[in-house]
Amino acid sequence: MTKHVLVTGGAGYIGSHACKALRDAGYTPVAFDNLVTGWQDAVKFGPFEQGDLLDRSRLDAVFAKWRPVAVMHFAALSQVGESMSMPGKYWLNNVMGSLNLFEASIAAGCLNVVFSSTCATYGDHDNVVLDETTPQHPINAYGASKRAIEDMLRDFGASNGVNAVVFRYFNVAGADPEAEVGEFHRPETHLIPLMLDAIDGKRGALTIFGTDYDTPDGTCIRDYVHVCDLVDAHVLGLKWLEDGRESRVFNLGTGMGFSVREVVSASRTVTNRDVPIIEGERRAGDCTRLVSGSSRAVQELGWRPKRSDMATMIADAWRWHQSGSYER
Ligand code: UFG
After folding, report:
1. The CA-based dihedral angle spanning residues 308, 184, 222, 282, taken in that order and rounded to the nearest 10 degrees
2. Residue 150: CATH number of its domain
3. Is residue 30 a part of any domain in this protein?
4. 206: CA distance to ligand 1 center in Å?
5. CB atoms within 10 A of CB 176
6. CA of 150 to the centre of ligand 1 (A)
7. Residue 127: what pLDDT?
8. Which is more confidently placed, 324 or 242?
9. Residue 111 maps to a domain
């Protein structure tokens, strides 16, 4: 019998890739999305249920209809800058929405949760490799909202038997190598898609946000992980829960830091095109350096990233950018 997995945010960038990975692993992903930031045409690998996490009766109906064996919870607002100017929006959508989801899930007897958290929960720890034991001191409301949801899961674990695998993502990049799905945010705020748009003239020059950071070339350092590797870890996390193993937190990153200038330079090499850039001011809420200590997922989950080298991530994103599907 087919096993259904409820994928909140299943019409979004990471959620749509997760649906493909789940389909490929023999599950039926049920994408649940309010289409505020997601795209219905990204739902290709299983049924679609339109709905909002703030609508409890809609959630109850979806749980009753599909009886999922687990929830993969991606749905969230995720713009760091916006979270600084509109924190209430993040507490309502991310935290209240998750509370509704978990209560509906518990009521339906679905106790396995794979949750999409972020390295933004750690905050600024300059020059430290961040592992899962690093204290969490988020410096933006987005990170604070995700940390609150992690806390919520811990409490529901103690009181209701919820089992959760929490993944703290570093910077997710790349696209499905078959270009069936890919990254498409409106507005777009992320470095690599903005850069590819600048390269092929879809928008103006890329602004580098700050060149006076305390890093070797003055620009921020991030740890980029391929979206396909990231969602593979989610399938392993789901199996971990199905095997009855304990709740666990895992970082998902490669442990390698790239500065903004290094990403720009790699894009020049991969696309063989010029990247028009402007050197601008720092962006509020940006940490100087976020690099993962990522051995736990490798050792305990058996996670083996395959496409997370910078050239492959940019090449896959570039292929998606040039595909017909990118032009929505
Ligand atoms: N950057 C630029 N110019 C741009 C866009 C980004 O210089 O036009 C820089 C940023 O300042 C940052 C790096 O490129 O140094 C990466 O920025 P992204 O916006 O692509 O990603 P972030 O690191 O800001 O955000 C990502 C996730 C968030 C998560 C965060 C953790 O998208 O969900 O990592 O800090 F919260």
Report:
1. 160
2. 3.40.50.720
3. yes
4. 13
5. 22
6. 22
7. 65
8. 242
9. yes
